[in-house]
Amino acid sequence: MLNLMRRVKSFGLKTWCFSLPFCATLLLSVGTAPSARAAGFIGYYTVGNFVPLNSSYYWSCDGTYGNFTLTETGDYPYTNGCVLSPDTSTLLLTGTNDGSGVPGATDFTIPAATSGIFQFDYVFNTLDYPTYEYAGYLLSGTFYPLANTDGQSGSVDVPVQAGQIIGFSVGSLYSQDGLPGTLTVTDFNAPTTPEPGTLTLLLIGVAALAWWSRRTGRARRVIGCVVAVVCISATARAQQSSFAGTSITGQVALAQSVNLRQQAQTNALTAAPLGAVRLMAPGGLPRPALGASKLSSLATVDPPLQSLSVVQAPGTSGFNALSHLDQRNAYGGNQFSLEPPNQSIAVGNGYVLEGVNDAIQIYTTSGVPVLPMVLASNQAFGLAPAINWVTGVNGVYLTDMRVFFDQGIGRWFIAQRSQDNDVFGNPLPSSHLYLAVSQTSDPTGTYNIYIMNTTNAAHPGCPCIDDYLQIGADQYGFHIAWDEYNASSLGYVDASILALSKSALAAGTSAPAAFQFLVPYLTGFEFAIQPASAPPGAANLVASGGVEYLVSTSSGGSQIALWAMSNTSSLATSTPNLTLAEIVVPVLSYSPPGLANQPNGYAPLGISQGAPIEELDGGDTRVQALVYAAGRLYLTFPCGLFDQNNSFVVGGAYIVLSPAYINGVLNARVINQGYLMLNGNHLLRPAIAVNAQGNGAIAVTLVGKTGDYFPSAAFIPFQTASTPGSVQIAALGALPEDGFTGYPIGGGYGIARWGDYNSAVTASDGSIWMTAQYIGNYPRTEYANWNTYISRKQP
What we know:
Elements: H1 2-10, H2 20-32, E1 37-39, E2 51-54, E3 60-61, E4 68-69, E5 80-87, E6 90-96, E7 104-111, E8 116-125, E9 133-139, E10 142-147, E11 153-160, E12 165-172, E13 182-191, H3 196-216, H4 219-235, E14 241-243, E15 246-247, E16 252-259, H5 260-265, E17 279-280, E18 309-312, E19 316-323, H6 324-329, E20 337-338, E21 343-348, E22 351-356, E23 359-364, E24 375-376, H7 377-380, E25 398-406, E26 411-421, E27 427-438, E28 446-453, E29 464-473, E30 477-486, E31 492-501, H8 502-507, E32 514-520, E33 530-531, E34 547-553, E35 557-566, E36 579-590, E37 595-596, H9 604-609, E38 615-617, E39 625-629, E40 632-642, E41 648-662, E42 665-676, E43 682-690, E44 695-704, E45 709-719, E46 726-731, E47 751-752, E48 759-762, E49 768-774, E50 787-793
Parallel strand pairs: 17-20, 18-46, 38-47
Antiparallel strand pairs: 1-13, 2-7, 3-4, 5-6, 6-13, 7-12, 8-11, 8-13, 9-10, 9-12, 14-36, 15-32, 16-28, 19-50, 21-22, 22-23, 23-24, 25-26, 26-27, 27-28, 29-30, 30-31, 31-32, 33-34, 34-35, 35-36, 37-38, 39-40, 40-41, 41-42, 43-44, 44-45, 45-46, 48-49, 49-50
Helix pairs in contact: 2-3, 2-4, 3-4
């Protein structure tokens, strides 16, 4: 009990319970007595007590899963909603699909019997195209989307009040092909009338405390005790997890040095004809399914959903940057034809470094290229070309480009990864991490090249390949996170976080201090973990031996994971010893994005394939950017949203957290959050950057048939305590996306890969620099027409 009281004090609450027996009584009644819950569709929550509703026709089914019949004669021989409950633990709900072509939904609701937790697991199945069918849950008439693609699953755990309408909804955006989505609900729990024993204990505890307060005259102190114990019960949901890591110094080793300007001036290989190409779409390994694991956390109230306005960007400068043509022609044309563009940007000392897929260029801040030609990243790392089209010999295939400038040490970083292959291009069960670190603050000069074997062969589930690099930095370390997949089955294994000594990298040490965490996939948050970086002028957290914050999302829900990697200052020693802690933070609700449509336009590759205009892949909910400034964390990620006209669009979310890591205890609260949405149109891959004052911008691609927007480079101005109001166009798109990934030639089915990320950073003058994908009216290759645009905004 004494330890318990100390814990109350640690949360800033006075411990006013002087009588241990009475506090014990209160703990029994409030903190430990279980609330009464209906485990399954029984009692009050029997399926027959729910109210069914859909947009047209009555509905029923014949009792066999998958066979549906209408109970009212209509013009369309398709189902319009059906519910089945083969047992008290399972509910199957199908959506509307009556052939009318009109969107509709099937709802299945009931008032909550009393206050408590509404909880269930779900799986969504559909034979339709992704995003055409969708499912979610209902609270007081508000729809919270959960899934819109076949096979999506997860858990929901939210508080509800007595009488609040709860339930489920499955709908269709087109309702015309007879392929309704089906939501399968299991492990349903909802609050019922409190058990007599629980209520009795509560009354006994309150009565006893009231008697004691009259005897002692300490009524205020009794209230303090009640508040303290209730707070303990609530905060226990944000249970902290800890993970052990390993010092791997020696596994990241200096291999050679390469001068970028010299490499760009030497291009001795014979250029291959543009027709001699091998098509390859980098990255994009699927997010793993969570399975039966449950996430448990308090939920927050979602902020209002308001559409942004669209304006031309005032006071913004920018320039057209790397394109598919540039990337394809680098290294004498001995490159693959790649889509989508994954671009990254770094700014410092009057230079702008952009990396896209496997190409690099350095510009002045006015947009003048500094290198005499676009450099293939294989050249930057001192490697043979990815493919020699004359001999047919394959070299190292690099992908997942990330670049960074650290003003504190005056060094530029270029990071990429590879799955190894033989000379014929066949994949091998091994992988590597490549890291180039400049020897000076000149990005065009000489870089030290570090290589790490990331095969991890001795680890359970491996040999592995590393996928989707994410980078960040604090005062003492440069950090790289990636996802590990089995090299043969491509099954997901775990998340890796690598911490490297910045001082050792700046000094060119042959074997910099290195520490690694391998985080098993248990809750759905151990995927695409994003490290934070601080903008120029903002201080890193040096308490607790140096702390690096990281954030990750799940595939959908109303929580994110906050991670703290502490004692990063030990990276300056020969025996680094870091710790990793994680908590789950309740935030706004989010669900996976779907597909983004685009206007019709001239698409010569599609015409040659006899294919319609492509839709764009909206990606998933992984964090796009994380910034630490003025003690706050700023993050953005994509999500699917229903706009104010009830149309499903691809949008995003932003969250501002106030984190704290004190005496090994991690905590955080949300100080601002909201959605990024444009009625009838789409905002792809939102990436935030803010300056030391918390002012900045969010880079996006704007596209949509409703607004007649071809894929355009845009951004959303942002301030810490405000709600964004507009999306500003930096470079208006001129044509539709017309790349090979959405056509038969690239194995596509009308859905084109769009970049895994945009990128935004802050310069020393507080300006925000962004690079976003768009389709301009520029020379192109036969197989793709993507461009990138770099823009600058002074907040």
